Model the fold of this input.
Amino acid sequence: MNNAKSNLEKKEDIISRFMAEMEHDPENITYEYLRDITLNFVIAGKDTTAGTLSWFIYLLCKHPYMQEEIFQEVKEATRAGQDICINEFVKKITIESLDKMKYLHAALSETLRLYPSVPLNSKSCFSDDTLPDGFNVNRGDVVFYMPYPMGRMEILWGDDAENFQPERWLDDDGSVRNESPFKFTAFQAGPRICLGKDFAYTQMKIFAAVLLHFFKFKLCSKSNDVHYKTMLTLHIDQGLYVLAYLR
Done:
């Protein structure tokens, strides 16, 4: 058991860390709890993150100058030379370097505004209530809201709501602007806001930084507009076909 515990503590993945913590808090961290945590990460974090990165690559192919701007930001944040190998580059991706990637963060937020991972969502009313606009709902009613059209409403985002514009997420000093989660609903809001929000941003920024540092992406066809396929998450219908060129 001591050897097994030692091996777990040497690993840095999140499941191994939870298993190591079971030794310290066996009453609260049980195998059933660990199973639920694992399923939550797999179900809530796999398709959503992968889908967002696909839409992100698609939008950058449509806006090549933004792709180059993010590449330069990643290069400066990591202080990585052009001839660095991928293993050495990954070591340079730290919390500090990720925090410097403001434009990348903004571009991912703008991707989620236009192409939210979950385009249609609903809530069940536990009791009678009145919504902010004065509409009355009863216990047991189901209220639907739609992040996809909400992200394109001019009343919320201005006349350029249909445009991919990462700058809308940056203040004049270059810092990231945090919009109200009730306006930017990609991660939900209130008590049920996504617990994995920061984890998702970190994961997406790491993958995006590695991909854009080593590759340039272009659509297979300049007229290759893609269409969405609404499932539980927002898929690209028929997949995304791109050409990847080494920098």
Remarks:
- The domain at 2-117+164-183+194-246 is CATH 1.10.630.10 (Cytochrome p450).
- The chain is about 45% helix and 10% strand.
- The first strand starts at residue 121 and ends at 124.
